[in-house]
Amino acid sequence: MKFLLVFDFDHTIIDENSDTWIVKCTPERKLPNGLRNSYQPGHWTEYMGRVFAYLGDNGVKEDEMKRTMTTIPFTAGMVDLLGFIGENKDLFDCIIVSDSNTVFIDWILKAADFHEVFDEVFTNPAAFSSTGYLTVQNFHAHHCAKCPKNLCKRKVLKEFVDKQLERGVSYTQIVYIGDGGNDLCPVMFLNKNDIAMPRQGYALEKKISQLAQDLNPVQCSVLVWSSATDIMSYLKLLIKE
C-alpha cells in the first residue's frame, strides 16, 4: 500500500511566488516598467530569464539571491506536514511539479532540511553561468494547448506514474496538492480513487468548482484546504484505513 503525494510549490509549499519574491533583490525592490510589461501569457520562463539577466546586470550575486529566497515563509502548517511525511516515507512517495526552477526550490528545501522528503522535483532547470548570471530553461516541450509552453504538469505526472509502474510500483491513491490554474490539467488526469486538494480561494479551487457548475466535474474526489494541517488530517485518516 503506497500513496503518491504530488505538490505544487509556489503558494502551496511556500506561501509566496518564488519568482516574484526574487524582485526583493533588485535595487529599488521593483522591476522597471518595460521589463515588467514584457511578459507574454504562456511564456513565463522566458520572462524570468529577462528578470535574472536584469539582476545580473545590476550586480546581484548568488549569495544575496540565496539569502533572500530562504526568507520565504512556508504555508501555514506546511512545516509540520512535511515533517509528518518524512516520518512516513515507507507509505508515501512524494514529488514536486512546479513552474519555479531547480535553484530556488533546492535552496528553500535544503535550508529547511526538507529535501529528503521529496523523491523527485520536476521544475524548470536553472543554473548560474560562468559570469554569475542565473539562467533558466523550459522544463520540456509538449503538445497540450491548455498549459504554458514550458510545462504541462499532466504530462509530467503521467510519465512519472508510468515509469513507476515499469519499476513495479503502483499507487493505492494519488493525492494532488496545488493552487494554480496550471494544476487543473494534472487534476484532470486523476481517476475516481484519487483526490485533488486545491487551496481555498485560489485559481485551482475556482476552476474545479466552475467545471462542476458546467456539469463537467473532475473524476477524482476534491477536498479543499486552507492550512496544511487539513492535508495532514486527511493523510492520517488515509494511513489508518
TrEMBL record:
Pfam families cross-referenced by the UniProt entry: Put_Phosphatase
Residues annotated as binding substrate: D19, D99
Alphabetized UniProt keyword annotations: Hydrolase, Magnesium, Metal-binding
The keyword Hydrolase is annotated on this UniProt entry: yes
SUPFAM superfamilies (UniProt xref): HAD-like (SSF56784)
UniProt-recorded Gene Ontology molecular function terms: metal ion binding; phosphatase activity
Active-site annotation: D8, D10
Cofactor requirement: Mg(2+)
Residues given in the record as Mg(2+) binding sites: D8, D10, D179
Top-level lineage group: Eukaryota
Record PANTHER family: PHOSPHATASE, ORPHAN 1, 2, PYRIDOXAL PHOSPHATE PHOSPHATASE PHOSPHO2
Recorded family membership: Belongs to the HAD-like hydrolase superfamily. PHOSPHO family.
Stated name of the protein: PHOP2 phosphatase
